[in-house]
């Protein structure tokens, strides 16, 4: 959805209205549903508290689907979905969407569960039998959520239909299955001789784990915001290379994946690529934007940016080996680089990855001092310098990755006006500001 109510497309508002009408249909038999009022009320209160803390608390919703008739189970989602915080505006439309989506998903899950479980599949004395209808209900719940999510993604962001639903179900199935198992445990204990009090005990470790998980995601979001702010500051200061940092991050990630690195390390190296030029914030703007030849003294000042960058990020613990890449990405295998003239294996592996990605984007982007080279030409140039300037493994990995995936940078430089090449800059790949 868009940032403001006026910007929300009519097609999105219409879709939300249709889903809301579907949710109202799911609730229309509620007045005639034979169920004690306290059961859905207690579950609704539990879900509202969990949703307020973590944004979603599916075990309680699925426990309701296992314990209550469909309309009563669907009602459990409404209070929590309407009061929980939302990200972005229009908040009312987002809350309405979330409530309607969950009502339909829980109603379908409860219908499937009751149909397969002969209306009462959850019994403490017959736990194995409860697994099959509960599993089917969880599957139905996941299918409905992903179907509706794909629809809103297609309409709000104009994502092509073949991509809107791709992977949504498989990515959601594992976590929702875990939620379903916890919900089944709640339901079985609820129906045991110990009653709802025993079921509530299941929530205590779940609440702790959800809180930890939410803290992790909040911390991760803060990390991303910090990195975005630093990169935007560099892009504003050095307009000639706008978008360069994001593209280097993308190329770094391609190399790391081609080398078979673990996902966690790939993410750290992506940060390294994005932040490699953050030290330019310490370089005078007049030097970064100078159109004429650089004097030897001016070049020495610019070559301090890796050390400036390292000082800026050295206290950010989550960056790990990315900090070394920021400091050493201009080192060369033959010792001709800067700032310390390291050679061969003295150069950290992360810096060797970023060096190749950095040089590749420098050659394939228009700069104040050079025009962009075609991707095949840039790759051949890197191969010529492999073993002397760049690590051969990294160059080979980039060539393979580009051959398989192509080079489609998510961020492109502003190429509307490119000055003629500056003759005073070396033609060596990576010899750029």
From TrEMBL:
Q: SMART domains in the record, alphabetically?
A: HDc (SM00471)
HD domain segment(s):
241-363
Domain HD-GYP, chain residue ranges per copy = 219-414
- NCBIfam families, per database record: HDIG
| Biased composition regions of type Low complexity, renumbered to the chain | 424-433
**Alphabetized InterPro entries for the sequence:** Cyclic_di-GMP/3'3'-cGAMP_PDE, HD/PDEase_dom, HD_domain, HD_GYP_dom, HDIG_dom
PANTHER family linked = CYCLIC DI-GMP PHOSPHODIESTERASE TM_0186-RELATED, LIPOPROTEIN
Q: From the Swiss-Prot or TrEMBL record, what is one GO molecular function term?
A: hydrolase activity
Q: Which UniProt keywords apply?
A: Hydrolase, Membrane, Transmembrane, Transmembrane helix
Among the Pfam families in the record, one is: HD_5
Q: What protein name is recorded for this chain?
A: Metal-dependent phosphohydrolase
């Amino acid at each position: 959805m868009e940032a403001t109510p006026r910007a929300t497309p009519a097609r999105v508002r219409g879709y939300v209205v249709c889903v809301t009408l579907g949710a109202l249909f799911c609730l229309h038999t509620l007045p005639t549903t034979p169920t004690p009022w306290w059961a859905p009320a207690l579950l609704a209160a539990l879900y509202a508290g969990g949703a307020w803390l973590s944004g979603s608390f599916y075990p309680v919703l699925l426990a309701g689907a296992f314990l209550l008739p469909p309309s009563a189970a669907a009602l459990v989602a409404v209070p929590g979905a309407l009061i929980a915080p939302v990200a972005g505006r229009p908040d009312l439309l987002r809350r309405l969407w979330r409530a309607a989506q969950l009502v339909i998903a829980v109603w379908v899950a409860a219908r499937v569960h009751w149909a397969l479980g002969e209306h009462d599949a959850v019994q403490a004395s017959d736990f194995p039998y409860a697994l099959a209808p509960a599993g089917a209900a969880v599957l139905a719940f996941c299918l409905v959520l992903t179907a509706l999510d794909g629809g809103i993604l297609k309409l709000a962001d104009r994502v092509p239909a073949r991509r809107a639903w791709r992977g949504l179900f498989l990515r959601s199935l594992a976590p929702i299955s875990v939620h379903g198992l916890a919900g089944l445990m709640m339901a079985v204990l609820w129906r045991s001789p110990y009653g709802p009090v025993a079921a509530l005990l299941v929530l205590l470790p779940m609440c702790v784990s959800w809180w930890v998980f939410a803290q992790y995601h909040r911390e991760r979001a803060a990390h991303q915001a910090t990195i975005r702010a630093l990169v935007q500051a560099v892009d504003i200061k050095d307009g000639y290379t706008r978008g360069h940092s994001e593209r280097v991050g993308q190329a770094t990630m391609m190399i790391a994946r081609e080398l078979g690195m673990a996902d966690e390390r790939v993410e750290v190296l992506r940060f390294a690529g994005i932040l490699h030029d953050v030290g330019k914030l310490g370089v005078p703007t007049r030097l970064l934007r100078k159109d004429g030849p650089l004097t030897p003294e001016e070049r020495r000042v610019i070559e301090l940016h890796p050390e400036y960058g390292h000082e800026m990020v050295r206290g950010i613990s989550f960056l790990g080996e990315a900090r070394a890449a920021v400091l050493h990405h201009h080192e060369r295998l033959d010792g001709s680089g800067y700032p310390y003239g390291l050679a061969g294996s003295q150069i950290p592996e992360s810096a060797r990855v970023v060096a190749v990605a950095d040089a590749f984007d420098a050659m394939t982007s228009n700069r104040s001092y050079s025009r962009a080279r075609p991707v095949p030409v840039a790759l051949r140039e890197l191969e010529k310098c492999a073993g002397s300037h760049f690590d051969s493994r990294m160059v080979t990995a980039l060539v393979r990755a580009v051959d398989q995936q192509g080079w489609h940078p998510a961020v492109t430089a502003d190429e509307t006006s490119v000055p003629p090449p500056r003759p005073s800059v070396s033609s060596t790949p990576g010899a750029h500001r």
